[in-house]
Amino acid sequence: MNDTAAAAGAPSGSAGAAASASGMPGAPGGANRGNPFESLVDFFDAARRTALHDRLVSACYAPIAPAPPGPHLDVGCGAGVLVARSIAAGRTAVGTDLSLGMCRRARLLEPRASFAVAAFEHLPFATGAFVGLTAMLVLHLADGKRAMAEAARVLRPGGVVSLVTQSTAWTEATARALVDQLGVEGTEREFYIGSARSGEANRRYAPEELTAELALHGFRDAVIRPECAGGLLIARATRR
Ligand SMILES: C[S@@+](CC[C@H](N)C(=O)[O-])C[C@H]1O[C@@H](n2cnc3c(N)ncnc32)[C@H](O)[C@@H]1O
Hints:
about 240 residues, about 40% helix
């Protein structure tokens, strides 16, 4: 996974600075070339309307909901659903994504939030800028160590990280078994089988590996919960 946003001069500074930036901060021009998600904006916008996605969004958002007052960050925001949750709860919220198209679509969904094109591995925010950080179905696409280091850096002590990521059990076969078992059809079915198939080269975590990585990167009290027949992991942890 490349660092396109950082290379293209995504802004540095606090969450407030990002929120006040005009237009779409981040990578202009061809900086998104090569990001396969650039052509999947409509697909993810459709997937966000499905029941399973909605359930995962709720599970991902829940750990950061009770965080003390302060801004939320959603990394790999896609079509913007998690950012919209934070805004609906009265938070200041920022979404980042490697894809400019995704950021634009997310801004249509929630114009009160701010968005920046940025890689998980290089977040353009000050140390300790956020009280809650979500990353749903993106950690497995990134350089996990650099992404976790950045999550820890931008969260203030006591801040909460909440992740949904693929586990070592998420293969095309297990995804198919799951959607068959649940009777899932249409876009939702395509989404889950497709993500398993396309992700077979991605980094996937066993629960104990994810716990260890979080501890290594400055988080305590990790709680990992399997979802979708163990194919996905929902993880929460607190910044030391
Ligand atoms: C599977 S989609 C998930 C979108 C959204 N979080 C959701 O669950 O609906 C992954 C998203 O992460 C973005 N992405 C991929 N690699 C990334 C990285 N290294 N840093 C930031 N975003 C990334 C993609 O552009 C895409 O929008």
